[in-house]
Amino acid sequence: MAMTAGGAKGLTNDINVTPMIDVLLVLLIIFMLVVPMSRKAIDLQLPDPTETTQSSTPPPQIVLEVKPGNVYLINKQPVTKNDLAKRLTEIYKDRPEKIIFVNGDPKLKYSDVIYAMDVSRGAGVKVIGVSPKEVK
How far apart are CA 123 and CA 99, in angstroms? Predict the structure, then answer.
């Protein structure tokens, strides 16, 4: 077929971008809805590093130490992993302030410390503090 100088007859190769834009907008809406729902966080209260003053009689604090080998210490008293939830429930059932400090050994996996925090939360603890260093 011959082309004339006045006009072109034949096939044109124009891309129809409207369906691609529609798909792009649908994907954008899906990601805008999914991303905020997938965020999970753990609320922690870390101690203020600049605060060094202590009262003459500190309040009785519960410190849960997590050691390697599934060793748990509540205020230096050993507790087995199976008895941890029961012991924490006994401690916190009559306490007005439901605060615990968790001290994890640096050699532990993060999931072991999270397990101890989860058991504490299940025992009725409202505030979990993470102890930044070894408690003496």
Answer: 11
